[in-house]
Fold each of these.
Amino acid sequence: MRKIWFAAVGLAVLYGCGSQPSKDEGKAGVEERTPAAAQPAPAQPQPPVSTQPVRPAQVQANPLKDPKNILSKRSVFFDYDSDRIRDEFRPLLQAHGKYLGDHAGAKMLVQGNADERGSREYNLALGQRRAEAIKRMLALMGARDAQIDAVSLGEEKPRCTEQSEACWAENRRGDLLHSGEF
Amino acid sequence: MNKRAGGCILPPRMIRTLLHLLAACLWLASGAARAQLTIEITGGGGNQIPVAVLQFAGEAVLPTSITDIIEADLLRSGRFRTQYAGGVNPLPTEPSQVNFGDWKTRGADAIVIGGAQRLPDGRFEVRFRLFDVPKQTQLAGVAYTLSPAQARATAHRIADVIYEKLTGERGVFSTRIAYVVKQNGRFELRIADADGQGAQVALASREPIISPSWSPDGTRLAYVSFESKKPVVYVHSLTSGQRHVVANFRGSNSAPSWSPDGKQLAAVLSKEGGSQIYLINADGSNVRRITQSAGIDTEPFFSADGQFIYFTSDRGGSPQIYRMSAAGGEASRITFDGGYNVSPRLSVNGKSMAFVSRHDGRFQLAVMDLESRQMQVLTDTQRDESPSFAPNGTMILYATEVGGRGVLAAVSADGRVKQRLSVQAADVREPAWGPFLVN
């Protein structure tokens, strides 16, 4: 149990920035970042008193909400008029796909979005295609078809409302919502 | 025909400005101002018919000036030039009281006279007559009995009669438009008269509403609402306010479009993966798929005879407009010019198609003559969307953006007459021009 937890923390550190859409992050220098907390200090021998390790209280943070956990990252970004999953988002989808695979009762809503240029209905279909691309990737990573509903919000719910390429890039997006979040 | 003779105290342009100022004052005084669309005419057509609309005798008894509305309707169509009609005393109500020679000198080809009076039961009677000035003959004469609330509608009816008699085409002043207003994070589906007045809210929501589509008899609207966090197609009865879900399948449900007989809808569903076109009965039953492509198929629109469905598809690599039999089968490509042609909407006579075409990064309203396949770009704006023809085919209503705000605009099918309709401090989008009234 503890090993899994440490591994999860490690993964979270490794992929903590996974949802940022910047292009140049990703492979740089991740090897060095071994989490310091993974090595508990050895107990000193102290004869007069006896000590026992106290297990941490079982306040297990919800991995889906824990900002250190990759599962708290929920957005996948796309190129213009494209539904191709960029490599930088594979670890994120792998983690969510595995989570769904491990939790048979969990459900997910994938919402696809598009930037505002062009026809609303065509953009709705584009958002749908993005949501379905995410769903397919999650299924490859272990999720079951029935767990995931892929829908589109088209250009109707922009996260950013300025007319700039940076803003449009932020709106070409798929969002992953877990049970209780939709 | 176009001679402009003496008799006018003020030049027509100044009169028009004064009329607009007067209209603006009335509009400000109305109290319902925030709900109204204001219309600005930004271009004019050539070869306009000069018509004089005289104030109706006794019209002050009415809650609103009928002749102002008639004149505004005629002007807005771009087909008429209104002649200064003041300085006549007493106002004629009978043919014998009209000095045709004088109106001929003033340059009017047609003249409208009328009268209004209160009836003992609290209602009103309005009569009008339309004359051909050169021929000195009556072209139309109608009497209406109306409640105070029907004054505007009566004015639009009269304008329709005048329009039809003088142009030979049916008028659209009595029709209605639907559109969506986004304001303070709220979405409202509104229905207004074709002149933007008398807006009523059919549906208010915190979530987006898109793609309103009028049933052919004008009593129902189909639309897409995101109120359940995903797109779902509804049919909404405007008379009862009742609505029901037509398509709420797994995935997305969108782009409803009525068949001409009003019995079924074409809509886009993704329940089998991918956005594909289906036919659905208006009650939501009998769902069957009619497109089978690996790409996006969306924005279906029936031809007026119900034989064909025009739609947008990226099956050829870029979004283009295609046509297929409404029974299904092969599709043929209609647009080839440019890399982005979407949102096909046909005129009722089936001869022309309005659509949105991207050129140099600008999304512009265009029309295509379906026989010659010639296309013409009608606007010089950047972000045109959602075209729809007036039921007589003369004007195309669409959404565009001006100063970062969504506005509605209309342009004549030949591109010469342009109007802009806007609501103060709100984003207006998704217009749909309704059908002729059935009565």
Amino acid sequence: MSIKGKAYLAGVFEHPTRKADTQSLAQLHAESALGALADAGLTKDDVDGYFCAGDAPGLGGLSMADYMGLKLRHIDTTETGGSSYVIHVGHAAEAIAAGKCDVALITLAGRPRAEGMATGTAPRNYGAAAPDVAFEYPYGPTVVNQYAMAAMRHMHEFGTTSAQLAWIKVAASQHAQHNPRALLREVVTVEDVVNSPIIADPLHRLDCCVITDGGGAIVVTRPEVAKRLNRPLVKVLGAGEAVKHQRGGKIDLTHTGAVWSGPAAFAEAGVTPADVKYVSIYDSFTITVLITLEDLGFCAKGQGGKLVADGNLIAGVGRLPFNTDGGGLCNNHPANRGGLTKVVEAVRQLRGEAHPKVQVKSCDVALAHGTGGSLATRHGSATLIMGRE
Amino acid sequence: MSPQERPIPSPPVNPETKPFWDAAAAGKLLVKKCSACGERHHYPRAICPFCGSERTEWTGASGRGTVYSYSVFRRAPIPYAIAYVTLDEGPTMMTNLVDCDLDAIRIGQAVRVVFKPTEDGPPVPMFTRA
């Protein structure tokens, strides 16, 4: 069964805060939910399906349904790190197509800044029972030095350069200057990026995303519901998900799970990379974007450096506009999980509601891709292709 | 300070992996090999991740390998090199590169295992220039 055209993205919301000193985590989820429901023209009483991931407090979906007063007949708490919410859109479409719910709500929120979390630079320990922890944690794997190993290998195999990676941040900053809510609005140059301090070889400070509090939400509905609402119609065309891991020690850091999730999504949508007018690509680091674009088929493996260079990702300048809100590199990375905001900006583009300076003309097909976990060990990849009706 | 002075967290040991850590305490590197499909894997499991067989056995490894990738974490209070090393026996494992010039590390370098003490657990395998 295909989900093509069977579910619509009726409401989206990006929480305006970037530092939530005065709000609780549950409150941020609920404020985001209300924002997306208001965007759609629905209320919480219309919701009968709820989706959340590991950032939700307490018992996740149970705690948030209790807090928000939701009456549910479908719940899904799939957890694949920052890509969870892109997967949730696909799962919501599946549930709607199967008649399991009519209005699906997806929420994300977090307050790593208010809590002073060392997001990317302290090793994360998922507990002694994690089967990998004894064989990784003693070596000090942080988010940034793991992604850095993927970058180092890509440079070794394909000759990718720091300057090419820097173009990704440059493009994001060109877009962020037009976003009044972006954490970093200053336009930067390739020289600024490569001259910023090295955090973990070969990644510089400006190769890394921002740390922000906040959240977001998405409302997915069946077509009949969406068509009653007074909003531009954006529908799901195809979705793909995949898990990439270490394969028992047969490690290949040159690709992500997008090599599987991408083709699945394109096949379901019945489109090719050439049909895509806008891409939201999870940009935890510049290298994440480069490898993902290769894996999704926007260029051949190893040619990502050439694809992203010379402004090719800048709206109105290059051939593949990306992350026109400034992305995680400049705008927002709520809860250290960037998948949800990727979908939000893609919906803005398809509706024609992006900032006029970055709005892509005749944007009828857009792609959002999430990468959650670590490029170097295990991650969930999710590709979502959406169309304007 | 030299990189190996970074305090090394102790690996949690469980019944499934205890032989690996007992061998590490004796200065030996073990790798799991599947008797059914013949594949070696790392990190070690009771059940082969390739064929699903429970007939996995501990085998000795030479402790020699090559650097697959690495990154020197410059921002850390004591910079250190995380790496993936591909063992001569096949599997690639996460590790640290130690007792060497961090600026001279390159992908493809030959390395050999050394065991480094942890805070209050068994020593862990790390690698240095061969």
